[in-house]
Design goal:
Layout lengths: L7 H14 L3 H39 L3 E5 L2 E6 L2 H12 L5 E4 L20
Antiparallel strand pairs: 1-2, 1-3
Length: 122
Amino acid sequence: MKTITLRADLEERLVENAQHEAKTINDLVNEAVEQYLRHQQQIKLDQEISAYKTMYATLKQEYLGKWVAIHHQTLVDHDADGATLYQRIRKKYGRISVLLRQVGEQPIEEVWVRTPTTGRLS
């Protein structure tokens, strides 16, 4: 395990916040790192989605109805079965974010979700 050293000013603020929130400094640091990693993952997926949209015309000609994997804005794999592709990608890339998408008639398929309603507008 690696030791991480915080700047004195950050440590002081963490101690104050930990006491205020009744948490440990480790809890706060883990939450912050988790949030940072989620944010980085979302940035990467946004880039992969943008690349997918750019490549869409070519992907549609070659892979319509099939699943594709986009990593570092590059097509890295494809398969007719999404689950098979997912397993292969996880084996090769681990937990790194890779966009998996089925190539449809439109670059981004519309999804309609029915939700319960009270009938009132807020």
